[in-house]
Each structure stands twice: as structure tokens, then as C-alpha cells.
Amino acid sequence: MSTRMRWERCISLRGMEVTEFAARHLGDSGRKVMLIGGAGFDPRSTQITDMLAQNIKGITALFLREERPGVLQTALRSRADANAEHMAKLVSESDAKVIPVFANDGAVIGGREVAKVVSSLSLASVTDVVVDLSALSKGIAFPLVRCLFESLEQKCASTNIHLMVYEDASLDQTIVEVGCDRPSMMAGFEGAWGLDASRDAARLWLPQLIKRQHPILDRLHRFLAPNDVCPILPFPADNPRLPDELIEEYRDELMSTWSVEPRDIVYAHERDPLDLYRTILRMDRARQRVFREVGGSMTLLSPLGSKVLALGALMAALDRDFPVAYVESIDYDVKPETIEKMEPRGEIVHVWLRGGVGAQ
User: Fold this and answer.
1) Each residue of 237-264: pLDDT tens digit?
2) 3-class state of residue 88 by DSSP
3) Is residue 299 in some structural domain?
4) Do 72 and 114 belong together in one domain?
5) How far apart are CA 117 and CA 123, in angstroms?
6) Residues near 218 by Cβ (< 8 Å), separated by ≥ 6?
7) Same structural domain for residues 189 and 230?
8) Is residue 57 in a domain?
9) Is 0.70 surpassed by the pTM of this model?
10) Which residues span the domain enclosing 118?
11) Helices in 27-73 by DSSP H: which ranges?
């Protein structure tokens, strides 16, 4: 296995740098840009579409609408409808697809369904694909990016892939996912999970911590039965007390259930996905050396919470084919009045994942 990081010298931009990049590079007359994003209730849904529409002429778009049987709140559906309508006006040449997340029997099918949609796209004349992860759930975003990335790699296409997310940690903490009862591996991110060759591997679990997710973390821990747990905390963070608050909230899990030592906690920059990406790969590389003669090591990821940190976990999973365990959301615990008052106050984070200078 190669120890070289695929995205060791990856280009990543933030804030006004992203707007300038869109205007100068993506807005060039010789480029044909396609946007793929989510049209959901999240107030971040429209931010990147709006920015790109202002700076790029002739952009096309595919907007995905995730359909969950549990999301019954009228306020959430109304907000999603309004966002979808606004985005369609911003990009006249756009299409919308509904992605069913669950089958009638409750099985999670969203990842496979979005892969079918991506596989059917005609990208022959497209120079740049921008994937907006801001309003996409991880169970949809991860398979989408993997399918897109591997499809272009197999075709040896020169198409660039840009990942963008509107970062707002306060919103990530406000919108609480209500998980289903079935922990599983994300579609396309099973890695070596369940294979005989990895049966004796020492399992290291790296869960991102976010407030009020005890049930989901408990289900994942029982599902994975890891030998070691290294929870990921955001630091530096907009709220400098957030790591301490998370440690206090999850004290029982850290001290008793997971048996986490202080040195086992992973700190990752809240606004820099490359920080977490590089940290995960360094940890995995060190463990592979230690456990090489006794069955090897398996790194397991669970990206909860922050979309920016989830982006770093996605890159690590793509690079090393790590298994990604999650619990799909059946609903969201957010008050209607909170939705109406939500105003994004963050900035756009951009990673050039594939193309001319995306991976050196």
C-alpha cells in the first residue's frame, strides 16, 4: 500500500478566495461548468448556487431533493420548496431529481439511487463539476462524490471536480439528525469491512462528535465493536469552548464505554478539511506499521456534525478506501421557528479534488 497522500498538495480556498476563483477561473469563457447540489430546507442550500450564478455565465445545474418518509414537518418541506424554486430561478438551465433515501421496507437506498443518477450524467463537454455539499446529507454526498470521481478516473477524462461547502458550525449544531435503527456502511464505502482478510485487524474508530447524538454514537459503537476509539473534536473552532463542552457532554462515553485517554482525542481545525484528512492518514500509517505482524489495522470513520470536517473524512476515505459507518437520518429535530430565523453567517470552503492541479 502506498503511503503517499493523494491530496498532500491539494488546493483549498476559503471565503472571498472562492468567489475570486469562481470569477477568474470557472467564469472563463472557455469553461463549461456543471453544479450538483442539494435543494433542501437548510438555509445554506442557496448560498453557493447564488455565488456561482453571479460569477459564471451559462452554468448548468442538477439539484437533488432528498425524500424521507419521516420528514413530516410542514415548515421543513415549505422551506425546501422555497429554496428549490429560488435555485431554479438562479440557474435557468437546471434539472431536479428526487432521491428516495429509504425503500418501502425501510432499507437505506439513497446512496445507490444517487449513484444511478450520477452515472447517467453526460459530462463529455463539461470542464468543471462543482459539488455543493452544503445541503446534502453525508449518506448522499459521499456516494455521489465517489461515483463521480471513479467514473471520471476510469474514463481518463480531464474534467475537474470541485467540492464546496458553506461552512457554518452554528447551523451544524442546531440541525440535529434523528437516526434510524440500522447502523450500516455507506454505499461504496465498505472498504475491507466484513472480509476474511481483515477479520483479525485491530479496529480504530474515529467518530466526529457533535452535541445531542448519544443514541447514534451508541448504535455505531455496538455495530463496529472497535478496539480503540479516537473521537474527533473541532479545534480551533469559532466557539473556543466547544471542545470542552463536548468532552463534558460525552464524559460517560469517553471515560467508561469507550475508555478514551486524553492523548487519544483528535483535534482538527473546524474550517480546514485538509487538516483532518492529513491527520487521519498519518494515524492510519502509524498503526499499519505497529500492527503489521498481528493482523493489521482497520481505520473506521463516522462523519457526524460539521460538513467541513466531514469533507476531510471523505477525502481520507477516498484515498485509503476506509470503511465509513453511519446511521441514516429519518428526520431532523429542528423547531419551525428556528428554521425561519436561520441566517447563514459562515463562509464557503473549496477543495479542488480532481483535475489539472487538484491532485499533484
Assistant:
1) 989 999 999 999 999 999 999 999 999 9
2) helix
3) yes
4) yes
5) 12
6) 253, 257
7) yes
8) yes
9) yes
10) 12-169+337-354
11) 47-55
